[in-house]
Amino acid sequence: MYHVLLAVDDDERRSTRLANAVAELPDADENVFVSVFHCFVDNPAGVSAPQVGGIRRVIDALEEAGVDHEVLEASGDPAESILRAADDEDVDVIYVAGRSRSPAGKALFGSVAQSVILGADRPVTIVGRAGGE
Description:
By secondary structure, this protein is of the alpha/beta class.
């Protein structure tokens, strides 16, 4: 069984791209298990991960594709939390969504995806934008 950690934020378009990328893996409905992961940086309303729109989209897409999954959540620094979840779950690969950012934006504000890539001890797949987005 191929175990994927799918790191999802609250952006529904990016989340849908991630779910579709995993659902398109060979024999995903039989050989892939997905840990859908969301890190809350700030959660004053106290919602749970399945209440987040992006997570809901992922769950719906995985269920439609017949891919087994679970939902995990944490609080704190997103990159650190993703890496910790990958270790805790002993996943084979981490999937994160890429964002369009200027070079200055990357230098000033950092990037969760970049931090995950640099800190991971396992493969990281970046899912980019589809044509026309």
